[in-house]
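Lab meeting notes turned into a lecture example. A postdoc, R.K., suggested we walk through two folding results consecutively so the class can see how the record format repeats. The first protein's sequence and structure tokens come next.
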Amino acid sequence: EDTDAGGAVRPGAPGTPATAGGQVTELIRSVNGPVRDLAFSPDGAWLTWSHPGIGRTLRQIKMARIDGPEGPLVVDVTNGRFEDENPVFTRDGRYLAFLSWRGFDPVYDVHTGDLSFPLGCRPYLVPLSSATPSPFALNPEGRPAAGGLDPLEDEPGEGGAVTVEVEGLESRVTPFPVSASKYSALEPVAGGGLVWLRWPISGALGETFANPADPSERPTLEHFNLAKAKKSELVDHLDWFRVSGDGSRLVVLDEGELRAVPANEAGDGDSTTWIDLRRILHEVDPAAEWRQAYDEAGRLIRAYFWDPGMCGIDWDAVLDQYRPLLERVASPDEFADLLREVLGELGTSHAYVVAGRRNEGPAHYQRWQGLLGANFVCRDGRWVAKRILPGDSSDSRARSPLAGTGIRDGAVLTHVDGRPVDPVLGPSPLLAGAGGTTVELTFSPAEDCQGPARRVAVVPLVDERPLRYQDWVAKRREVVRELSGGRCGYLHIPDMGGSGWAQFNRDLRMEVSRPALIVDVRGNAGGHISELVVEKLTRTILGWDLTRDAQPVSYASNAPRGPVVAVADEATSSDGDMITAAFKLLRLGPVVGQRTWGGVVGMTGRHRLGDGSVITVPMNAAWFDAYGWSVENYGVAPDVEALRTPLDWAEGRYPVLDEAVRLALELLETNPPATPPGYDAVPDRSRPPLPPRE
């Protein structure tokens, strides 16, 4: 490679043709994953793309002149410090625009005081020639009243030669005068403008939003007029869009409906064209689709599987071995079953298949079973609320319908919406289809209580699992408190995603304040945030912050005060395997329970095949200094094995937690918890006596 001034590189590879002429020219080769977001200039002479940089997030914008007097030329537009993506040329060929995550205005976490950067993206503009004025720059001659640039005498043709001045290209990068947010799908449109999607900032669980007045998770389609330096909103909420070939219209997908709207102004009844998808008919040959999808799946696995050598598997032979079965496939489910057999030959985790053509046709109207969040038992034909689950006010999904109604444990449910409860079938048939609606329940007092029957109106749940999960955690915490005499805190982490991070932080401050801590990752469904959990658990108390009339606060804050013990089982999977391995390798404490699931070759995204089937490809393999590749298909063995048998469950015993607490208390004997200092040795700041006068 020969380097030019201005960060330009001239590709040159032996045997690689330097001219297009129907032949392939290699411009550049990535060593860190695929390039993406390719876009040509209006004249077809330049190509731009987002090139992978260091790590998994950094990317830089590059340009290449496809052909020229001296052959192809590759130019760096940005230097790779940030995550730059989605470059496009404006249709007049004067500017390059792209999106970049380079905003660093931190936002405080209201619970722990951590800082994050939820708003970090903006569109940026690059004049391709120093003679081209930026529409955002100050002009000594003043501006038009509407802002932006003076209107041109003649609109530039879309297809004229694009001029790129390589020298100083990066220094001409300018942010658009719009607020930082989350942007995507930057596209040029007719008239020299640009459109993009602006996404709301929402919680990972979909419960809270940056703008409470706008609870939609769907994006807004916006247009920016470069000539006027003005932004306008085209569509309030939508799912996605595409630009027409001439850039004058946009096809908008909105909740399953398609419409064509103007590309540079908000559409109205006259300018909007609705597209009736029912008129589009097509014929399908399922057998031909399955043959094509089978070959496509084979190519995807070969191209994206984490090991280029396929871990010694003769992949072509595997495909040939199973291909004859294609002729026997008669349904999407059978095809998915065949793909599962093929992907099973990889012997690797995270190789999943979802059958295509599920839930085709119009959505079926469905009413959910109503659930009351209570345990009912039948006593002499009367359905008694043996226990009403209390719910958790910090989790909106863990609402308890009967909590707070005045109905107590032991009350008898006699009627639902005025209909008597069947002494054999109970209340469930009467609650069919009542989930999320209002029902009237009639209760008579418990057997040992006097009083009239009570009627209450409640909204039954459609899913009790979050409620019962929070109750499960609370019960285990009570068990740990009882076994340890209140000396051990208890945290359960259900997964390594948004819900797991929420659950971990929900009680972290309370539980780490106790001398020891039990971290339970049994049943952890995996995810990608184990590093964040490890960062919290590896904090060490180095000192204390003392304030008058207040309790001392540790430094570092929210750090474990003493020993930590982990609990894992065979359902601790994926990123749950990872945190269990990290627990042992960092010597955070012993691990109690069973060997973990053993699946640490993760997937990135999903691939939809031509027939609608979806497959995942194991793309990211984990390797540890101490374990090498051995965690995959084996798991992480505990330091102390413990198992809760069905008999233990039936008789109310907790041998796994019992063993974890025993170890924690033993460790407390040799490693006492960190404790704050008293006021008995505070420094003496009184004025020292003056020396005697001579």
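The second example is placed directly after the first for contrast:
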Amino acid sequence: MRLKDMQFHIDLGSGDYYKVANGKFSFRVRGESHVIGSKLYPVTAKERASAFADGVTEGGNHLEVAEWLNKSNWEFKSGYCYTNAEILQKVFTEMGIDAKYYSGWVFTGVGFPIHHAWVVVDGNVYDISIHVTSQLLMYEQAKAGVDVRGREAVKAVKESMDISRPVQEHFVWGKVPDHMCYVGNEDTAESARKNYARAIKSAGDVSKHPSYAHMKKGDAYEMSPYQKLLEDA
């Protein structure tokens, strides 16, 4: 739904929030306030930007596409959202379904948003780049007081990520989970990559960008510390 047609405020506690008012998506995370569409958080056309969340999306559709993926040799790879969205859009299109490539920013429920790409069909989100099942497992570990970076906890998450079928159960397939929110607009993979580059350039260095502070100075891309733990588990 277009931002200009929405209005909401989600309290994250400790003064942090996500909100949409007067066609603008703003947020406060860890005491820092930012706006989607700013130099640090660019989108291709902020005046036409849309948000996708739990209350405005629905699941249960296009299961034939999910079944095609389930039977294919597609493998889940974290960190390849621009390419994954291209692949998924192509599958939808080849099955005669009008699918739009979107890019922007995704909030996963913890911390700052990350730059991302996904597919939109009839106002619903299809995203094979974020493994929701393992994400929810991490939240459960944290709620239970488990050290999420501990060896056994990381091993459990990695084992969860190895299970990618059925895709409609382990990824975002139409309905956006209530802990997530997508903000962006119709785009191309090339433009999406350029927007990411603009965001980093505006920060002066990737290590200075709020969403990528885990990276080292001068790096173009680097796994987060947690992703490194997963790789070594």
